[in-house]
Amino acid sequence: MMATLSRWLACLAGALARRRVAIGFVCGALVFWLAKPTGTTVVAGTSIAIVGECLRVWASGHLNKAREVTVSGPYRWFAHPLYVGSAVMGAGLAVTSNSVAVAGVIALYLAVTITAAIKNEEAFLRRTFGDRYDRYRYRRPAAAAADEDANRHFSLAQAMANREHRALVGFAVAVLLLVLKATYNGPFWRAAGPH
């Protein structure tokens, strides 16, 4: 019974991990509809989200995805810096949106999809890298001291190869839509109302 439940949960995690971008578009539309951004929340939230995107770019520039385990850059301190960056971006977009409902949607989306992605990714990394992954995962600072690639330099080309520019474009589009909503939502709808 437990083995069946475990397999079922692993399949669910895999399905959610594979579909997290599509689920993100659906959640993004809901977020845009519920958002009530103001100039102040756009500036504050975007500032927070930029920190998250910078962390993602930094992490992407230190990793050849699915081909290695590294302890360089932010991987020295975080097991999953790409997901930490995504969570910070989500918090920033929640602030930008100026809505408790949006914060709830973003929190639920991130909790479900990031948890599923981490479970799926860790299973893959354990199968692929075995003990090397476990040393990285559970003894990161010590592993960093003993690992020759711990001092690897950031590579913008590697960040691009990891397609981080897609996350950057998505982030920019989300912020621009929220800026437009903050700018035109109130005045536009008041002007378009009954005369």
Describe what is shown at a glance.
The chain contains nine helices and no strands. The chain has helices at residues 2-18, 20-34, 39-60, 81-97, 100-129, 131-138, 140-146, 156-161, 164-192. The longest helix has 30 residues, at 100-129.
Description of the structure:
This protein has 195 residues and is mostly helical. It contains nine helices and no strands. Helix 3 (39-60) runs antiparallel to helix 9 (164-192), helix 4 (81-97) packs antiparallel against helix 5 and helix 5 (100-129) crosses helix 6. The longest helix has 30 residues, at 100-129. It is globular. It starts with a helix and ends with a helix.
Tags for this entry?
9 helices, single chain, 195 residues, mainly alpha, 77% helix
